Amino acid sequence: MNHNNLSDIYKFTQRNMINWSLTSKFFHHNSRDTYTDDKHSKDISWIIKSSTGTLPTLDFLNRNFPNLIKNDTKCMLCNSAEESNDHIWKCPTLLPHIRSTFRLLADQAQTFLQKYADKLNLCITDSIKYSNTFCWSFYNDAPITDNATLLLRSYVSEDLFRTFRTHFLTQGATIKAILKFMETATRLIKRNIWKVRSAAWKDKKRRLQITKKSFKNYQRDPRMKTTRAPRCRNIGYICPQTVSLYNNYNRSDLIFIILASSNFLHSSVFFNQLTYDLSDDISYYSSPHYSRILMV
């Protein structure tokens, strides 16, 4: 959650908008015949990239292949902003495709509920119509909602779960129906939305004379490795127990216990933190000269 690509997901989590239990089930769900199916691999690839904000948009490609993209990161559809994983779901040119796709998804959700629901069949239309995930798509001037964005990024929202749960007697039946719907949603999003962007990218590659071999050769060329744009260093999680380590560096007994702890010996994050907490003048730590040491 500390990663910049997941900052919005962190906010959605704080607002209790994501059903993490169902999202996890969907991430591990296989709708194909076998786990070695090439289509299943592509499904997993899409889920991982869309959920983590690492779809190959131009900003991402420019960072990894600067000599190929050459800082030309303007959105290929609207040409008004940098193309990024955040922009792609808000692009004004792509928004009509997103809106029409969500209308199809609303119809699909209604079909699934009418087929599998246990109760309140007469209220299914209203459930879909007033769901925050779908309602915005019925109005041409309405902005996309956060719950719709979560679906675009392969997350199961609490709003979607409530919409389905109302019409089932058991949670198990609800989960099965939602997983089936998420399969359909993922394929429609890829086919009706991402494919539009992919077509524009193919035209751009043709103009720039970029092929698949261009990317492969780029990685193999040692001269290209030095041109990659630097990443911002992200330390990630910092153990609160190490924050005050600098103030206690002269406590040899405390330092020995901490460094001997298996929890820290197997934590690379801890050693990263040492770089910031400990002075360069401290070159080593010796065991404390006590007859009894509490080992943890």
Low-confidence residue ranges: 240-244, 274-296
Q: Largest beta sheet, briefly?
A: none
Whole-number count of domains: 2
Tally of helical segments:
15
Q: Strand portion, in percent?
A: under 5%
Structural class: mainly alpha
Shape: globular
Through-space gap between termini: 30 Å
Mean pLDDT: 81
Tell me the series of helices and strands, N- to C-terminal: HHHHHHHHHHHHHHH
The amount of helix comes to 40-55%
What integer value in Å does the Rg equal?
A: 25 Å
Strand tally is 0
Summarize the structure.
The chain is mainly alpha-helical. The chain is built from 15 helices and no strands.
Write the layout of secondary structure elements.
Layout (H helix, E strand, L loop, with lengths): L6 H8 L5 H8 L10 H15 L5 H7 L1 H4 L15 H4 L6 H22 L7 H6 L16 H7 L5 H8 L5 H38 L3 H9 L31 H9 L1 H4 L2 H10 L19
Which short descriptors sum up this protein?
single chain, 296 residues, mainly alpha, 2 domains, 54% helix, globular, disordered C terminus
Structure description:
The protein has 296 residues and is mostly helical. The chain folds into two domains: 4-227, no CATH class; 235-296, no CATH class. Helix content is 54%, strand content 0%. The protein is built from 15 helices and no strands. It has helices at residues 7-14, 20-27, 38-52, 58-64, 66-69, 85-88, 95-116, 124-129, 146-152, 158-165, 171-208, 212-220, 252-260, 262-265, 268-277. Helix 7 (95-116) packs antiparallel against helix 11 and helix 10 crosses helix 11. The longest helix has 38 residues, at 171-208.
